[in-house]
Amino acid sequence: MRLGVDVGGTFTDLLLQDDAANKTYRAKTPSTPQDQSIGVAEGVRLICEKAGVKPSDISLVLHGTTVATNAVLEGKGARVGLLVTEGFEHTLHLAKSWTPGPLFGWIVMDKPDPLAALKDTRGIPERVDARGNVVHELDEAKAIELIDDLCGSGIEALTISLMHSYANPAHERRLRELVQERFPDMTVSLSSDILPEFREYDRAITTVMNDYVRPIMTRYLSRIEQRLKEVGVESRLHIVRSDGGLMSAEAAAQRPVHTVLSGPAGGVTATAMTARRTGINKLLAFDMGGTSTDVSVIIDGNPMISRSTDVGYFPAKVPTLDVRSVGAGGGSIAEVSELTTSLRVGPRSAGAMPGPVAYGRGGTEPTVSDANVILGYLPSRLLGGDMTLDVDGAREAVASIGKSIGLSSEDAAQGILDIANEVMLGALRVITVQRGLDPRDFGIVAFGGAGPLHANAMAQVLGCYPVVVPHNPGVLSALGFLEAEFKNEFVQTLIGSVAGMNDGKVFEHFADLRGKALEWLDEQEVETTDRGLKYTMDLRYEQQGFEVEITVPSEMIDKADGLDTVLKDFHETHERLYGVRFDLPIELVALRVVATGATPPVEYTMPEDGTTDVAEAIIETQPAYFHGEWIDTPHIDRDRLATGARIEGPAIVRQYDTTTVLLPDHYAEVDETGNLMIWPTNKGE
After folding, report:
1. Whole-angstrom Cα distance, residue 298 to residue 480?
2. Which distant-in-sequence residues (6+ apart) come within 8 Å of 374 by Cβ?
């Protein structure tokens, strides 16, 4: 029994996989922003009740969380102290030469305060050069004086980030010893542990961010483990990393910076699995929830990985899935601007409480979900009948918007959806057109509670087909957590011309990193047969400002020979990516070893009593608003459909965790793996 838990801004999604019986169970429960662990505990009770099992039967809990992200975005992290090399106290303030957009953007920019204040920063007398040689010995007496002053000032966590510590971490480690001797309860992070790579600002801000969210993450994990224990769950808790991998709760408490994009990672992982199962090599992941929409690109069945991301204004140099987010979701609030009397949608959201007006929890402002309700796209009862919608309240709220801009309630609702769709289309264009990719070459996977409601409209504008609606779209991120693998990355910066390096020394460093990777796999209790190791080098032409990652075959590591082959691959990869190769010396920047631990796949079994006769699956027929008129539209029970069933649009396809809107002039077919595949009726013309 494996449980995936995805906490969103509006709903907490859970998916329980019974590996023995090959069955899955779904549950959605309102999120509890005041304490997310309350919603998680309630969801565990609900899904165990649905599955007819005890919480103690669950063997593994996999959880994606936005706690770290929200702490940074809301500026509610811990008070962090910072020890740097003397003379570099303003590292976080100088940052990088970057301005937000065009001229006007930086004129009006209100630059945020660094995550560690200057008054909480101390310069330590010491210096190491880029080769790791000690230029100035650590002045321990002065260091103790500064540590006593800083740690006694009320800071909650301490970051130590010294110049070139990636090359020689001895001074950082000694400072940690001094801190622990005098302040044993102080939380301490070393930049040489969190990010042992060159580039001073990136290393400092990433480590400071780790400490900024660390006390909050530690408290949250402690609460959620306690809640799970109270409801009877006895298994270990694992957290999803930003790159889609898994880490133990203990590791997440130590390095929470690796969870800053934990939430969206599950959906991207599940989309990649969908690509492999359907054979569609190019897919766009379209995850629309109640608060935001996340989009990403899958090519050749693999998600795009970035070595850094931004959390608000602050960069975090950690491996992440390349995801773009916009503030448009089912709970996005529609309003009319007082200045321009124009209709706006989002980024303000009704969230879980009070939520859309239709939810009947006290919401008064019209949202995207309310627009879907009055247009007939959402039925009056959701979650298998557990949730009744206030249709009249939604109509009244949207009508107030229409009245202020001279539109009928139907046209106002359509306008709300059109604007929300345009915001989401902007994010899809960023990850495709702006990168030289043609969206017409891609299919689109719709998931999240609201994704299938809007995906057909997205595809119609962008021309990306098929629209793939997985069998569990509303809880697909939780499913992705179950299909994620354990993952961690071990890095060694080693800057220099390849021509002047001893090949044997390079492979010795690889061997050291491999030892650390295997030690980590032991800590995560990954079986030997499930382990994987990937070796890569970051290479660049001399004096370039960026690197290209090149894979090194594992047999090359064992032989400690073959760098010429790697250099040849670098030239070819550089030419493929940038259209040019140079006859210049090549520099090695870093070595990486990525350790992975495989987890069992989640297999879906089609219902035995399914039918290919759509008429047998019709629940009811209700009017829905398409192309400016009301059309009697069948509502179809998806769980009654078998492989090969074909639905002609318009239609509303209903299931426990979401609702799919099939537009006129489109049809949908159920494929052999249970996906709903939507195509235009004139496909191929």
Report:
1. 14
2. 391, 394, 395, 398, 409, 410, 413
Instruction: Judge contact between 484 and 403, C-beta under 8 A.
Output: no
Q: Do 196 and 239 fall within a single domain?
A: no
* Phi and psi torsions of 26, nearest 5°: -115, 150
State the CB neighbour count (10 A cutoff) for residue 305.
14
Q: Is the pLDDT of residue 622 over 80?
A: yes
Query: Where residue 591 falls among pLDDT bands split at 50, 70, 90?
Result: very high
Place of tokens 């020979």: 561
CA separation (Å) from 365 to 354, 370, 374, 504? 10, 9, 14, 66
Radius of gyration of the chain measured on its C-alpha atoms: 27
HSE of 535, CA atoms in CB hemisphere, 13 A? 20
Q: Is residue 145 part of a domain?
A: yes
pLDDT band at 619 (very low <50, low <70, confident <90, very high): very high
Q: Could you give phi then psi for residue 275, rounded to 5 degrees?
A: -60, -40
**Assigned token pair, 407:** 């539109």
Nearest to 567 by CA among 647, 620, 609, 506: 506
Range 538-567 average pLDDT? 86
Cβ-based neighbours of 674, under 8 Å, separated by 6 or more: 470, 471, 604, 606, 643
Phi-psi region of 256 (alpha: psi -120 to 50; beta: other; left: phi over 0): alpha
290 and 13 in contact (C-beta within 8 Å)? no
**Crossing angle, helix 262-278 and helix 476-483, to 10 degrees?**
80
pLDDT at site 56: 94
Do 25 and 12 share a structural domain? yes
- Binned at pLDDT 50, 70 and 90, residue 28 comes out as confident
Residues 402 and 412 in one domain: yes
- Position 164 in a domain: yes
* Range with the poorest average pLDDT among 215-219, 286-290, 324-328, 611-615: 324-328
Look at the block and give the residue holding tokens 């494996």.
Answer: 2
pLDDT of residue 586: 93
Token pair in block for residue 401: 């918007």
Residue 23 near residue 6, CB atoms below 8 Å: no
In whole angstroms, what is the distance from residue 572 CA to residue 583 CA? 12
From residue 502, how far is each of 458, 495, 505, 510, 587 by CA, in Å?
Answer: 54, 13, 5, 13, 13
Exposure string for 148-183, b = 16+ CB within 10 A, e = fewer: eebbeeebbbbbbbbbbbbbbbebbeebbebbeeeb
Percent of the chain at pLDDT above 70? 97
The pLDDT, as a whole number, for residue 98 is 67
pTM of the entire structure? 0.82
More confident residue, 98 or 73: 73
pLDDT at 578 over 70: yes
Structural domain count of the chain: 4
For 347-388, write each residue's pLDDT tens digit. Answer: 788 876 788 899 888 888 999 999 999 999 998 888 776 788
Burial 263-295 (b: 16+ CB within 10 A, else e): bbbbbbbbbbbbbebbebebbbbbbbbbbbbbb
586, 519: one domain = yes
Whether residues 186 and 96 fall in one domain: yes
The boundaries of the domain holding residue 32 are 2-72+217-253
Report how far Cα 175 is from the mean position of its chain's Cα atoms.
34
Burial 360-381 (b: 16+ CB within 10 A, else e): eeebebbbbbbbbbbbbbbbee
DSSP 307-376: S-EEETTEEE-S-EE--EEES-STTEEEEE-TTT--EEEEEEE-TTTT--GGGTSS--S-BHHHHHHHTT
Domain-embedded: residue 664: no
